[in-house]
TrEMBL record:
GO terms for molecular function: delta(3)-delta(2)-enoyl-CoA isomerase activity. Transmembrane segments: none annotated. It catalyses: (3Z)-decenoyl-CoA = (2E)-decenoyl-CoA; (3Z)-dodecenoyl-CoA = (2E)-dodecenoyl-CoA; (3Z)-octenoyl-CoA = (2E)-octenoyl-CoA; (2E)-tetradecenoyl-CoA = (3Z)-tetradecenoyl-CoA. SUPFAM superfamilies: ClpP/crotonase. This is Enoyl-CoA delta isomerase 1, mitochondrial. Keywords: Acetylation, Fatty acid metabolism, Isomerase, Lipid metabolism, Mitochondrion, Transit peptide. Pathway: Lipid metabolism; fatty acid beta-oxidation. GO terms for biological process: fatty acid beta-oxidation. Key enzyme of fatty acid beta-oxidation. Able to isomerize both 3-cis (3Z) and 3-trans (3E) double bonds into the 2-trans (2E) form in a range of enoyl-CoA species, with a preference for (3Z)-enoyl-CoAs over (3E)-enoyl-CoAs. The catalytic efficiency of this enzyme is not affected by the fatty acyl chain length. Homotrimer. InterPro entries: ClpP/crotonase-like_dom_sf (IPR029045), Enoyl-CoA_hydra/iso (IPR001753).
Length: 280
């Protein structure tokens, strides 16, 4: 078993310019570039970065720490080949107790509020499939670069017999508009990389992670001469409406989740979907 120290030493040997930064969780790896202060945050929960309470909590803590430690920007990516995130961990929603479901949902809400409202410039480096909750993570960043053309991204909840909550939907509306969001969400569409690029769901499609990192640098470079306070306030105003809805309606949103997810036909559908994934 690799100790934390061995892990840190190995990382610093592999990447001499990156400062190790402990996320406090084995599920999230963080490397901060010494020169630029930009942090690369990589989710690493095998097999598919399913967003369970633990990973969501670890991401939340990481976002907090990066702000406190004055990172200058964040790239949110994955260390699992071909997977950005498979979205919410369905096992957390299937047969969960009301207590666990509430904790799970509240952790998701907190993580999203933190990510969506961080004053740090954020880039999603989408190096794998990004359905549902994975798409939400990417959409909550300010700039999206997908690596390779074989991946899909979108909010496919209706295909599972679920619906994307209002704040998931509003986040998508803010990027691709109400018409395309309605079409995509009602049909549970997963966009190919090319389709996502065409519709503006991703900003760039590149061939390699190196190119994606260069695109990210270019994006962060836009703010070199912009005072952080002015940038942060502007981001706040642009995002206020979507954010405020959840801030004001957290309890209601939790109730809707709890009531809907525990419906027998919804649970049945989730069970069948899980089985179909396992049978593959
Ligand atoms: C009506 C109530 C509404 C209330 C509001 C609800 C709000 C819900 C909001 C968001 C919902 C979600 O995010 S649900 C998750 C949706 N995600 C998906 O549909 C993606 C499902 N997964 C895949 O399509 C594929 O796994 C993949 C393309 C991401 C990767 O494919 P790959 O071939 O590499 O891997 P496998 O399919 O073999 O999977 C490996 C392993 O992981 C398990 N798995 C996959 N996805 C999930 C998941 N989301 N949650 C839990 N487990 C998952 C899969 O079963 C395999 O398990 P085994 O190794 O045990 O076989």
């Amino acid at each position: 078993m690799t100790t934390v120290l061995q892990h840190v030493v190995r990382r610093s040997i592999l990447r001499p310019f990156a400062k190790s930064f402990s996320s406090g969780s084995p599920l999230v790896d963080v490397q901060v570039n010494d020169k630029t202060g930009v942090a690369i945050v990589k989710m690493g929960r095998a097999p598919v970065n399913g967003l369970n309470t633990e990973l969501l909590g670890a991401l939340n803590d990481t976002f907090d720490s990066l702000e406190k430690n004055k990172a200058t920007g964040m790239i949110l990516s994955s260390s699992i080949p071909n997977i950005y995130s498979a979205g919410l961990d369905i096992s957390e929603m299937y047969n969960g107790t009301p207590e666990n479901l509430t904790k799970f949902w509240n952790t998701l809400q907190s993580m999203w509020i933190n990510l969506y409202s961080t004053p740090l410039p954020t880039v999603a480096l989408i190096n794998g499939n990004a359905p549902a909750g994975g798409c939400l993570l990417a959409m909550s960043c300010e700039y999206r670069v997908m690596v390779g053309s074989k991946f899909v991204i979108g909010l496919n909840e209706t295909q599972l017999g679920l619906f994307a909550p209002k704040w998931f939907q509003d986040t998508m509306v803010s990027i691709i508009g109400p018409r395309q969001t309605e079409l995509a969400l009602t049909s549970g569409k997963l966009f190919s990389a090319q389709e996502a690029l065409k519709i503006g769901l991703i900003d760039e499609l590149v061939a390699s992670e190196e190119e994606a990192l260069a695109s990210s640098d270019k994006f962060f470079g836009l703010f070199k001469r912009i005072p952080g306070y002015a940038r942060g306030q502007t981001k706040n105003f642009v995002r206020a409406e979507v954010l405020d809805w959840l801030l004001k309606n957290r309890e209601h949103d939790t109730k809707v989740f709890l009531n809907s997810i525990q419906l027998p036909h919804v649970q049945k559908g989730l069970g069948l979907y899980l089985q179909s994934l396992k049978k593959k």
